[in-house]
Amino acid sequence: MGSGASRPTPRKRKAKKGPLPSPQPPKPLDPRLKLDAKEKFFLEKSWKTVARNEDVAAMAMFINLFRSSPEIKDKWPQLRKLSEDEMRDSPYLQKLSVRILGAMDHVIGPYGKQTITTPPSDIHVHFS
């Protein structure tokens, strides 16, 4: 501690000869994806932000959906007569929105792995 003798001596790097090798080309995208590499990258990165704040994002998604298309709210009898403020406090809507966002995560999340194993319809069929 404090003495120069206790510090490890820095290793000298060997000089590499010649130019760097060219990087490997990116893996081809899954042909089922209708996205190019840039769109896929932005989808993955923005989805990670949504997934980190799942509860808040799910509720905001539904509130905005019902605000822009009020007729959709009629699909859920428990939500038909609720105001926007009541919906924000609704445990039913909280649970529903997180479950649906979770289903979306099963579809969007695997884009990074380039595998889509479960169709969205199979995931969504269990929600009510």
TrEMBL record:
The keyword Metal-binding applies. GO terms for molecular function: heme binding; oxygen binding; oxygen carrier activity. This is Globin-1-like. Pfam families: Globin (PF00042). Residues 34-128 form the Globin domain. Keywords: Heme, Iron, Metal-binding, Oxygen transport, Transport. Belongs to the globin family. SUPFAM superfamilies: Globin-like (SSF46458). The lineage of its organism: Eukaryota, Metazoa, Chordata, Cephalochordata, Leptocardii. InterPro entries: Globin, Globin-like_sf, Globin/Proto. Residues 1-33 are annotated as: Disordered. The keyword Ion transport does not apply.
